[in-house]
Amino acid sequence: MTARPCHRCGEPIPTGTYCPDCHPGDTKPTAHSRGYDAAWTRLSRRARKLQPFCSDCGATNDLQTDHSPEAWARKARGKPIRLTDIDVVCGPCNRARGQARPGREGKRPGQRPEGKAQKALHLEMITIKGGGGVA
Predict the structure, then answer these.
(1) Tens digits of per-residue pLDDT, 20-59?
(2) H or E stretch covering 75
(3) Which ranges are annotated Basic and acidic residues under compositional bias (predicted)?
(4) DSSP letter (8 states) at residue 89
(5) Beta pairing, strands 86-90 & 63-67
């Protein structure tokens, strides 16, 4: 078997991409330890079913539910998060909004991304002419 270099230090290793000293390990906490339980999963699924598009740009793929600061405050007080405390957005818009949890860096919680078209909210007005027909 041919040895390959470790991606970080360059030492030859028999298998894998990192040597044991350089292996990054699993650093991201589980979803449950970050505050996402079965109730959150049900609420998120319900919100995305009721609104199958992004509130900011109108995208229909990679939909996520974004928390308002009030949602985390309710959770901290032991109260359930309500449907009115969350917003359906796509992944890029959710990341652009920043963190909603208190004490985290990022944009102001709930702030919409700059320069995004509000496609989902633009409705074309249809005028009805005197004869009942649509123009």
Answers:
(1) 888 877 677 887 887 788 988 999 999 999 999 999 999 9
(2) helix 69-76
(3) 102-117
(4) E
(5) antiparallel
